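Researcher: Re-running this chain for the archive, since the previous output was lost when a drive failed. Same request as before.
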Amino acid sequence: MGGGAWKTLGKYIGDERWYNVSYIYSMQRGFSLQQDDACGWSGDGEWGYGSNGWFSAYYALTQLGNLPVVRFRVVFTSNSEYQNDGFAFDDIRISNDPAGIDEGKEWLSDVRIYPNPNEGKFRLVYNGERDVRLLGTSSSFSQPSVEEYL
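Model: Regenerated structure tokens:
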């Protein structure tokens, strides 16, 4: 890591709720984590056994967008009290935010998209004199197809 400290992504408190438990008891200071950073994921629930299946988690990495190198690590801890199955990650995706209209050419100043950025559903307002083509892609990332002309 070049001498820098590892930083815990997200917190259990507040609106984020990235982790599903506020404190992993087997996490001690040996992992370069402060005790208040010992939140994490647990499949045990409230002293139960197993997670009862997969659950989805999402975390926005926008604060890392301008860094030249980013490394991720997963810290796994356990203790001798439980012998459950372990952990797994599936379908991890790191991607860019949808491009906003401010990334276009100067003549796009007559075009407004609300909200910006968006998640694929938006309102488009055009107050210009140029011909504009709207292109869309399918979820399979095929070549763009012309949907409508203004």
